[in-house]
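Appendix B.2, paired examples.
Example (i):
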Amino acid sequence: MARRIESLSLAGPAGRLEALLEEPDDQEPRLAALVCHPHPLYGGTMHNKVVYRIARGLRRAGCVVLRFNFRGVGQSAGEHGYMAGEIEDARAALEYLRERYPELPFALAGFSFGSRAIMQLGCELGRGAGGAEFLLAAGFATRMGPVEFLAECTVPKIFIHSTHDEFGPRTDFERMYLNVAEPKRLMWIEAADHFFAGALEELEERVREAAWRGPMACE
């Protein structure tokens, strides 16, 4: 079965959002996943190599994946929204995904800035009816803002982190992780930097494994 790829223009709170929808290569989708990209002001787009690998890992696990550009990036309308705006962009993209695949459970994933956006949105939505199966954060930057909300978030949370992440040094990250509410799981990847240099294939495989197990990955 050939993989379906669609370029989309979604309705967003600040105007149209450029997006890309991809279904699995060789199976019917069993989960719908939204993937958010790194910081818009520092070159982050839905085509970022880490985002691409996350999306491919999710597809290999049977997910239909929606990537999109935050406001002001690529063909998306608007201007940078200092996280609050981008969370609303993610909410609008998720609404489209859930309307498109109403029968499927959903998950949220992101890299760097995008990982913070999906964690905040996913924790707000909560666990159970209307909530995500799991939240997957790659390169969650400890130095990008408050993290206290994670102490109250009971949605299953999967963190994938580089051993040499300059925006979330290992000591800082481990200290933060201690205060993150269960259920949770942390996977370290031996990589050169925040962008998983030299370890993108391992990142993709870890994402595939985690997504295939879903919430059970946190047990």
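Example (ii):
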Amino acid sequence: MRVLLGADDDLRALYAPPDEPWLRVNFVSTVDGAATGDDGTSRSINNGADKLVFDLLREMSDAVVVGAGTVRIEGYAVGRKPLVVVSRSGSVPATQRSAEQGKVLMATVSTAPYLDEARSILGQDNVLVLGSHRVDLARLKDELVLRGFRHLLSEGGPHLLRDLLDQGVADELDTTIVPRVISGSHRRITDGPPVDVPLRLATLAEHDGTLLARWLVER
């Protein structure tokens, strides 16, 4: 399927989530697998097609789930959608410390060194303790659904995507492959111990050489 950047209805139909609790992960990469450019962020490799999908998926989501490292590296500002920061340390990123109560949630563990600080900054009810040393991502998804966040979007980073797949929590992986090759030692969209998760291609669209794919995680 070929898509046009202005064909908003087509894209909405293409990326519409099912009417059930759903967690999708969105990533951009180059043809040779780089998830970041020379500045260490995804901003230096994305393009107009990727930005359009990025914004659409944000709009369609009830909340955005992101690893604390990605929030810091990508410089996340306080957005319109609630942001769920996953962090084993419990340290609230600087850009989120002044957010309105309830706009930022923290998913962390009972041994987090900054747990009390996170509760003080974000509010007791907005800090979810989900495990002792590893964040239980299945429990996180269940807790967010109970709070009314049925359609969840994760934007990584690579460690979080790996863990979402490993723990069987991700339902869908959305990828944008931009028509560039940059070589070097850039990060891939996953990082960490090996995982082997089968995917099924649901949709594939193209715009000026950029490939936009939806992959469903096989159970």
